Amino acid sequence: MDLEGLHMSIDYVGSSGVVLSTEQKAALQSSLVIVKSNYKFRGVKFWGKILGVKSDYFIVQGVSKDELKDRKTLYSQDCVHWAYCQ
Question: Which keywords appear in this protein's UniProt record, sorted alphabetically (predicted)?
Fold first, then answer.
């Protein structure tokens, strides 16, 4: 899901049982704008939420000029602090 249409897409997939809380939606939207700016990404896509045993993870992927070579995947547990997947 692209950053621009994220709020509508999240509500759309909510009918299939994948639901984010209001706090998570708000934090995710504002945080992805900051991630795009700080990491100098041309675009940011939200991949989804992984439900873990101990905690949940949010996955996003940022792309730069060359979308195949300059692709970085990041994860977060709180939709605020992001780290690279290795």
Answer: Cell projection, Cilium, Cilium biogenesis/degradation, Cytoplasm, Cytoskeleton, Flagellum
- The length of the chain, given as a count of residues: 86
**Average pLDDT value for the chain:** 82
C-alpha–C-alpha distance, residues 80 and 72, integer Å: 17
Q: Quick count: other Cβ atoms within 10 Å of Cβ 77?
A: 14
* pTM metric for this prediction: 0.77
**DSSP secondary structure, 36-64, as one string:** HHHTT-SEEEEEEEE--SS--EEEEEEE-
